[in-house]
From TrEMBL:
Single annotated GO MF: ribonuclease inhibitor activity
Gene3D superfamilies, A to Z: Ribonuclease E inhibitor RraA/RraA-like, SUI1-like domain
Record SUPFAM superfamilies: eIF1-like, RraA-like
Species the sequence originates in: Trapa incisa
Family membership noted in the UniProt record: Belongs to the class II aldolase/RraA-like family. Belongs to the SUI1 family.
Protein name (Swiss-Prot/TrEMBL): 4-hydroxy-4-methyl-2-oxoglutarate aldolase
Amino acid sequence: MALVTTAEVCDANPQLIMSGELRALQPVFQIYGRRQVFSGPVVTLKVFEDNVLVREFLEEKGNGRVLVVDGGGSLRCAILGGNPVVQAQNNGWAGIVVNGCIRDVDEINGCDIGVRALASHPMKANKKGIGEKHVPITIAGTRISDGEWLYADTDALFAVQILKTLVTSILFQKPSFMSDLDTQIPGAFDPFADASADDSGAGAKEYVHIRIQQRNGRKSLTTVQGLKKEFSYNKILKDLKKEFCCNGTVVQDPELGQVIQLQGDQRKNASTFLVQAGIVKKEHIKIHGF
């Protein structure tokens, strides 16, 4: 069972659905493979009754990616079989989505990988090597581009333009989302991490995180988390409200501890105040947004 379900994500993100950033695929796919929940960056491929390029992709290191193949919806032959799926599993692909047919279902169902396809078919595909790589495709009524993020569970599949946008928007509605994500996708990266900073090992810095969360379309909420225990969150909130005439509150989050919540986009104001008040150094603040 998914710890973070597609239903929860859709319920928490009506604004992303309306904008088209979050798109659910039509329910036309059958579930195969042992991994019923999977997610990863999308690699797109467009072919028709030909599986040479499919096999070539799956011979590469997957690095947690998802191969999404537009097979034109053909039900006349299989463009994916057991051997390539075994290879994909061994090469670290998270999943394969096929707008077409597969075969060797029993073998595929024994693989630790997620597979979605329209149906199974015993006939093999052509071997001409014709197709297009890394191009926008439309499958199950949904436009998907190379490099987007795809998430699948037993309810549905959805595509999202930027994973950071999705995680930011639901992090404080479901605080355990990041740990859930890492449980479901071993080694999943932290979209909030600063790749240029070395925060590991002895002497690692402690950061104050200031984030913006959209709510109900236009409304937004700024959160401040990670202040040292010797500082009074309530005193800081009082000073922020007085300085910038903003509304806010202090909440106790079960995952994050104390969090200051400010109405509106107060990221710049909060950062400036914390530095000028000597509460935290500028280089120890990480500001996150969409």
